[in-house]
Amino acid sequence: MNFLSNITSVFKEHAARPAFCIQNKQYSYAELQSLISAIQVKIKENCAGEQNIGIVLHDDIETYASVIAIFLLGKTYIPIHPGYPVERAGQIFEQAGIKYLLARTNNDTYTGVVTLATGEASGIAEAELACPSFSPDKTNAYILFTSGSTGVPKGVPITYYNLDSFVNAFDALGYKTDHNDRFLQMFELTFDLSVMSYLIPLSKGACVYTIPDSGMKFTNIYSVLTTHKITFALMVPSVLANLRPYFEEIDLPDMRYSLFCGEALYKDVVSEWMRCVPEAVVENVYGPTEATIFCLTYRITDVNSISEYNGIVTIGQPMRGMEAIVVDDASAQLPDGEKGELCLYGNQLTPGYLSAEKTREAFFELNGKRYYHTGDIAFINEDGNFIYCGRVDHQVKIQGFRIELSEIEFHLRAITGSSNVVALAVNNPNGLMQISVVFEGAETDAEPVLEVLKTKVPPYMIPAAVHFVATFPLNTSGKTDRKALQKMIA
Asked: Is the pLDDT of residue 404 over 80?
């Protein structure tokens, strides 16, 4: 495995250099290696026979050391956010067969699993880090759980082969990065964009700068960008929407690469942002969790000739080892220029979900190749770039997190006993996307319902607004007209 071999050699070569800066405290590669080694000892002593190991996430060095420790044992990590409802965590434990958790401290929050405290790992004899021997195409590096339409989170396994293919394709993009670079890491580890934000710098001997949990996230991001003179930043476009009022004051001459992923990137905003990062290469990148972080890229070389559609910057062309096509409702390939569903094939594509049924629904064979239905509407323009036009279904991204609106509806129906509830993604006055729900019937107090919902879904899935409509409008098919509802609540 190339990326694992790189990491082990980097730890030797750059032992004295900073690997992480967390809460303004730096940790060297030597300190990180010591902690990784100690955590590996804990794993070997307590759960050597287990493949899947959960990690309770915190913004601390123990969390990142746990991830790398698992990688260098050839095992699989499953991130568990401490803010998730216990019921949701239990569903993840069951699906992934998790019996052991790595966490900073022992706790009794979760039942049915054994917690190994990584905060108590110091002082254990240090061993040299080594690249494991295993079958990369059959071994999962991690499993991420995304929102599921039935109310149950959906497990997406990514193999070591998928991850190594991403690293190789990333290197082929020609970014000139080395141990002198400073990378931003703004994502929760349940979000796959985080993997690039720590894995790539650790394979270069560079330093990873994380964002503090407390306070307003976008102000923390700005503070880290300026204070630490970040040279490489992958961000979600909503960060720009929050920073836009301050663009006149922002000057980041040290930024060399500014990438965006996870949401639609708007031409007018990124054009203004480019004045804030005058020396940076700016790229819009695209990819679902199923295709390992991102797999299409578009480099913006001139603000006056940005390829876009309805103001949304193109997602570009596939990276090395990946292919993309556009298909119709019957999964037949469409010619360039015609809109359809974007589908992906290649080395970064997951073998399938934990659920065999979900796998059958999402994958199909065409011309001897196995493609994945992304659910995104796209077409290929005259330049050969893929143009994103929206979603096929009602799956949306809020703050970079992928959300099935139907999952929110599922829980609200169960809580209220009403089948007439619709979840919508709408833009607030600041131009940021948020979730609103609409109930059919007379207005009632929604707070008790939202309090119960908070025990079922993560915080980013809680609606920002609740509306009541006496009678839902219907379309010509007799179905609830979501577009009409959206206009009504606007």
From this structure: no
CA atoms of 403 and 310, how far apart (whole Å): 23
pLDDT digits (tens, 9 = 90+) for 79-119: 999 888 888 999 999 999 999 999 988 777 888 899 999 87
Q: Which of 176, 170, 132, 140 is nearest to 158 (CA)?
A: 140
Beta bridge partners of 431: none
**Which of 404 and 136 is assigned the larger pLDDT?**
136
In the chain, where are the structural domains located? 2-312, 398-489
* Residue 419: CB atoms within 10 Å: 9
Do residues 274 and 300 lie in contact, with contact meaning Cβ atoms separated by under 8 Å? yes
Overall average pLDDT of the 267-293 stretch: 95
| Statement: residue 308 has pLDDT above 60 | yes
C-alpha distance from residue 346 to each of 28, 138, 172, 341, 354 (Å): 36, 16, 15, 17, 19
pLDDT of 21 over the 60 cut: yes
Nearest to 355 by CA among 159, 96, 84: 96
Q: Which of helix, strand or coil describes residue 141?
A: strand
Q: Is the dihedral of CA 197, 198, 199, 203 positive or negative?
A: positive
**Which amino acid is it at 213?**
D
CB 277 within 8 A of CB 300: no
Residue pair 143/156 in contact by the 8 Å Cβ criterion: yes
What pTM does this model have?
0.85
| Structure confidence by residue, pLDDT tens digits, 42-87 | 999 999 999 999 999 988 999 999 999 999 999 999 999 988 888 8
Q: Give the pLDDT mean for 136-162.
A: 89
CATH for 2-312, options being 1.25.40.10, 1.10.1740.110, 3.40.50.2000, 3.40.50.12780: 3.40.50.12780
Instruction: Count CB atoms within 10 A of the CB of residue 464.
Output: 13
CA distance readout (Å), 245 to 63, 218, 229, 307, 404: 34, 12, 21, 25, 31
Domain at 398-489: CATH code = 3.30.300.30
Name the burial class of residue 420, with classes exposed (0-12), middle (13-18) and buried (19+) by CB atoms within 10 angstroms of its CB: middle
Name the more confident of 148 and 242: 242
- Cα separation, 477 vs 455, in Å, equals 35
| Coil/strand/helix, residue 339 | coil
Q: Do the two domains 2-312 and 398-489 of this chain adopt the same fold?
A: no
By CB atoms closer than 10 A (0-12, 13-18, 19+), residue 482 is middle
- Beta bridge partners, 140, equal 159
Report the share of the chain in percent with pLDDT over 70: 96
Residue at token pair 């062309």: 317
Q: What is the mean pLDDT of residues 120-129?
A: 62
